[in-house]
Amino acid sequence: MPTYNATGITLGAHKYGDAARVVTFFTRERGKVEATARGIGKPGSKLAAAVEPFTLSRLQFAEGRDLDRLTQAEVLQGYVPLRQDMRRYAYGAALLELTALTTEPGQAVPDLFEALVAALAALAGATDLELIFWAYTLRLLQTQGNAPEIEHCVHCGARITGQVWHLAVEGGFVCRDCSPQSNGRAQVSGAAVGALRGLVTLPFDRLDRLSLSQGVRREVGRVIRAHLSYHVSGELRSLAFLDKVSRAKGRSDADLS
Amino acid sequence: MLRYPRPLQRVIEELERLPGIGPKSAQRLAFALLKRNPADVRALGEALVALPEAVTRCQECFNYAEGELCAVCADPGRDRRLLCVVAEPADAMAIERANDYRGLYHILGGLLSPLDGIGPDDLTIAQLVDRVSRLQPAEVILATSPSVEGDATAEYLRQVLAAAGISNITRPALGLPVGAELDYADQVTLVRALQGRRAM
Ligand SMILES: [Zn+2]
Ligand SMILES: [Zn+2]
Fold this sequence. Notes:
heterodimer; A: 257 residues; alpha+beta; CATH 2.40.50.140; de novo design (two linked rop proteins); 2 domains; three-stranded antiparallel beta sheet; 7 helices; B: 200 residues; alpha/beta; Helicase, Ruva Protein, domain 3; Dna Topoisomerase Vi A Subunit, Chain: A, domain 2; two-stranded antiparallel ribbon; 8 helices; 6 strands; binds zinc ion
């Protein structure tokens, strides 16, 4: 059977019989690849480590009639800190989920692949995890052509300065000259637009430099969530999970005090 | 069109609903049952009928049990100062088979998983905290599997248990498989084997 090689990140896997898995990878060369992997779960399996979520590996697949089969794997990076901290784990899972929701088999998106590798590496060390999730979301929307326009007013094309209006359906921001009133749009400060620009342009390992006030953070979060829910259908389980964990934690902390 | 007799068809349909059993395997199993001695088939049927009521969850550790307590929790010879936390009953069974551990277990009922939406309240974590507060074990062993989910769950439990005042929390040594050669080990295994090194 013909084989091919690819470099990929494991997005997820589900059980298929006792020791087999159906694994979803996001590869640099071929976009999303779904493949079976056999003999997982037995100690000493050469493929087991590559089947774990987050893992970056060199992979070899054999083409199959239905699904391709993973035949060889060499782990390049396992992002170990993501397993050792519940918030890093959940944000990492959110990146994987978002990628799985928006990529297609056979369609390579090299820019997005590089962004995912950089984002996972940054998640392993950064302190502000939310910024990494946001930056990745914006870059993912960019590769789809769905990112908010952050330089110019979507109505008149004037360069955006100071306070503007935002509505995800319009694809970005509207200046005050075009619309003195909000007309159902959300108000966004110049600082928040600046933060969005930083999220798009700064390398992932420098996002920690953006120090956002609580107010700006709320605005940025609102803008990104609006675009995300407008362009990507389906709720991210990982973010709901993060809420569940903070709720459970909050409760047990409260019990102690 | 030729159909199987209704009672046979029904057995095939019921078998098909079990995990890992497709239409072909279900037929094969049903035919195998037909060919067996009727007393054997009746014995199997009786065992199945008794299953839902006869097997309960242990009120202490959530392992399978007959009655209120499982065999381990009911055994006065077990060391109550040791508590081993595992994901599933099958994991406790694997440790029992290794025939070395003499403490108690706690079955979580799964692992925390953002991708599957399984949060702390979907597992027996609150019950675990309650139990360690009562038992005050000298050591809690977090024996979830060394997967991403198993590691993350163990780390979460470590924090929750530490907050509940448990100081001696351990995790089984993770590292190179027996008989493996070092240069074949993957990056994750090596990092963790080195993190878990010990003085000799
Ligand atoms: Zn304008
Ligand atoms: Zn028990």
